[in-house]
Amino acid sequence: MSASEQGPKIKYGETAPKLDKAQLQFMKLIEEQNLDRVQKLKRVRRNNLLTAGALGFSVLAIYGYSIFSVQQEKFLDDFEEPKKMSQASARILSSGMRLPPLPSIRDLVKLYKLQAMKQLSQNFLMDERLTDKIVKSAGRIDNNDIVLEVGPGPGGITRSILRRQPQRLLLVEKDARFTETLQLLRECARPLDIEVEIYHEDILRFNIEQHVPDTTQRLHLIGNLPFAISTRLLINWFDDLSRRRGAFRRNDTCMTLTFQKEVAERICAQVGSEQRCRLSVMSQIWTEPVLKFIIPGKAFVPKPQVDVGVVKVIPLKRPKTELPFPLVERVVRHIFSMRQKYCRRGYSTLLPLEGREETTQALFQRADVKDTMRPFELSVAECLRLADAYAEHLVAHPEVAKYDYRAPKQALN
Ligand SMILES: C[S@@+](CC[C@H](N)C(=O)[O-])C[C@H]1O[C@@H](n2cnc3c(N)ncnc32)[C@H](O)[C@@H]1O
């Protein structure tokens, strides 16, 4: 802007023109407006400072929280940090029993390139607090006890068992790749006077009586079970339990096992509950299953699709029936074969077509069970009374035992 564009300069001092009242008032007004604007600017500046402060605080808070969360996620590595040991380890250390320092399970898995195999349902637990918690669920383990661990894998739960110092530990693992890591644990357990035996076998074929011939010592069955065989193994063990054979020649052999969460809930489901099924009834005839706790899927490596339930399965001192296992299993399976129908529908398929309706009615009457209940509404006692009625019916009609309603043509009809 040139000097001529700026207009005449105002001169102050004696030569300055005197302002009249209107001009003074106008100046006062301008002055007030300026003051107002300055105040407003000050307010805006203060607000800006406050906002900046709040934003800064939020950023710091988010940053701090992230650091905290990352530390939380480190739980898988806790095993590697001697300073951050779990309470269980601290207790054991203070009591003098101690495994020598070992590489972490995570490191062993890396070192031996033990990639999980899906076909063997391998999901490893690396968190010592969780493996300790599973073993703690088994209750007291004395130094005269024997523990059989199913599928020890790289040995996470095995370490927790060793810290409880049983007299003997049998490890049954189908995958031979884990032999070296398990041998390492066996060496570490030697000074603690724990006999560790490693069997490269399938638990479904493992002959417990052969490996534990006498019954003077209490036996614990523990395992983070492979999903693929968990139900079959449990049913096999109920069969053994009903015959007092295998691991169940003593009546105090408890099982502490993991299952998919839904399966664990079904095992423990009570009458009328949504999850009540054949497995609930079968489990509750010979044992008292207790759902101890749930392990989130993310605690496993690799992470399975589902969460996992830890169930302690305690054999009943007096089983609820003396009937043979296959007969009970057959009756319960038929009852639950049509879950949403009246229970008489499934049960009736135990019987040949000829006279089926009348015989079914008669057997329900003999059992004193209402035939219009749904299978999930039946108590264990009611299922067993139906099994008793069927067993009595077989005495008079032994040929019915072989009847298979799915078979194309039955000689009996
Ligand atoms: C879910 S992983 C548990 C591994 C380890 N106990 C843990 O908690 O990290 C199941 C283990 O059972 C083993 N396994 C699978 N089928 C088996 C079978 N039929 N008999 C014995 N072990 C089996 C697998 O190789 C695997 O090591």
General description of the model:
There is one protein chain. The chain has 413 residues and is α/β, with parallel strands linked by helices. The protein has 2 domains: 93-315, 3-Layer(aba) Sandwich (Rossmann fold); 325-402, Helicase, Ruva Protein, domain 3 (Orthogonal Bundle). The protein is 43% helix and 12% strand. It contains 14 helices and 9 strands. It has helices spanning 21-73, 87-94, 105-111, 128-137, 156-162, 179-189, 208-211, 227-242, 261-268, 278-286, 325-335, 343-348, 356-367, 380-396; strands spanning 124-125, 146-150, 168-172, 195-199, 219-223, 254-260, 287-295, 300-301, 308-315. The strands form 2 sheets. Strands 4-3-2-5-6-9-7 form a 7-stranded mixed beta sheet, sandwiched between helices. The chain has a two-stranded antiparallel ribbon with strand order 1-8. Helix 8 (227-242) links the parallel strand 5 (219-223) and strand 6 (254-260). Helix 4 crosses helix 5 (156-162), helix 11 packs across helix 14 (380-396) and helix 13 (356-367) crosses helix 14 (380-396). The chain starts with 20 loop residues before the first helix and ends in a 17-residue tail after the last helix. It binds S-adenosylmethionine. The site of S-adenosylmethionine has 22 residues, from strand 1 and helix 5.
